[in-house]
Structure formats: structure tokens, C-alpha cells
Amino acid sequence: MSNSSENNSAPQRHVLLVAKSAFAAAPYRQMQRLAELAATLPGVAGASFGFTEQGTPSLREALGALREASASDILILPLMLPIEPSFTAWLTKSLRRWQAEDGAQWPNVRIAQGLAESPLLAALMAGLVETAEVAAPVPPAEKLAPEGSLIPAQKRRVLVCQGGPCNAAGADLIWGHLRNQQDRQKLRTTGDGTMSCKSTCLGPCNLAPVIQVFPEGTYYGGVTEAAIDRIVAEHLLGGRVVDEFAYEPTGRKQTLRAAAPVKPSLAKS
């Protein structure tokens, strides 16, 4: 793996650093540096990183790479501050779902406590304050001519619900997979053009995770990474609603339908 460092003297544990997202080269270099540092810790055989939202590799891709490398013990170390109370719950549910979809033997996976719970955080903050350079003063604002904006030409919009039930069902992972696919497949300029954004509650909470695709306004429930791949290929690019995951407004309460079993490759999520 291009973002891992190995120490064969202690092969019992691989540390997987997890951040939310990264868009530019600098944060990737920071994560690489942190992975190299983690790989030197006692009892650590190697370290790598992944992202729960937009960024490569995604958390699922990073786990898939470790499985292919025959890692036997993986410790997920969240680097985010703050962490929502539901983080461990939805991450655990997602790990179980990925294991069920994959149908193969998985290594032992554990989730470490967040940074905010560490008793070492106060010492770290004290060191950062003590060694920080004097911050440069903020310059006064300059009067600038107003800038114009282009009206987006994209005809399609995808809203990813970020309401409580959807977050608890792993909506961040679905958002990240959609954004990564949007970048990989150049969806902004392919077909009718697609833009995506996070949304407040979209309504059908018991169908979480939920997304809505416009201009049709189609609701999709129980969305997984495999469902996103089909929605991209069939709906966003092909113009055909994916009935297997779609829910029409009927005026009556609906529950999630049992989806057909799928076994996508972890390394290609």
C-alpha cells in the first residue's frame, strides 16, 4: 500500500488512522506523516489511513487493502474532533454490513477511543501552546470589487440526508462514497451534469440512509455503497429510476424492503 509503513518486529497490530475528508495535497501529506509516525509505535506492525467522507482511500477501501495484505488485527484510530456520540454506533453497524456483504473471513477490527477522551490531550495542547509561533495579526479588510458567479449548468441534484436517523445509519459514509464517485466519474460534466450536497432531514427517517435525486425528486432508502453505484450508473447517467431502492409517496407509512444481496469488493468501494 502506498500510504502504509511496516515494522515487522511486532506484526500483531495494524493502525488505521481515520479522518473525515481531504481535498488537497497538503492534508494527504499530513495523514501520510501521521501514518509513518504511528508505524513506529511499540507493538504496531504498520499504519495507514482512510476517510469516512470524501477522500481517497475511503475507510472501506483502506480496510479492503489491509484484508488483501492479510492483516490479522486492525485498530481504527479516529482523529476527528469533536466526534458525535453516534460515531461508534454507525461505524460498528457499517463494519457489520460490510462483513455481511463481503461474505469472507475478516480480521479482528477494533475502534479506539476518540482524541477528546484521551488523558494525554491536555499535555498535547499544552505543548502546542508552548511551542507555537506568534500568530501574525489579521490585516484590515480591503475594499474589493464584487465578484460575479456563474449559474450552474448541471441539471441533476443529489441531496444526502444528514438527519439524526440517517447519521446513525452511516450517512457520512454514503456521502463520502457519492462524492468520490462524483470525482472519479466526472459527474459534474458527464451526462446532464450532477451536483450534490448534504441536506437536513428529508422526511422518511425509518428508511435511513436516505437520498433524494432531482429533477425527478426520487427518494432512495436503505442506501448502501452498492446502491450509490447503481444510482449513478442507471439514474444519474442513464435517466432510469432504480426501482429496487426507490420509494414513491403513497400517503401511507412505508418500511424498508429487503434488498437483493450484493457482494461488492471492499477494495473498489
From TrEMBL:
Superkingdom of this protein's organism: Bacteria
Record keywords, A-Z: Lyase, Metal-binding
InterPro entries the record matches: CbiX-like, Thioredoxin-like_sf
Database matches in Gene3D superfamilies: 3.40.50.1400, Glutaredoxin
CDD domains named among the record's database cross-references: TRX_Fd_family
Name used for this protein in its record: (2Fe-2S) ferredoxin
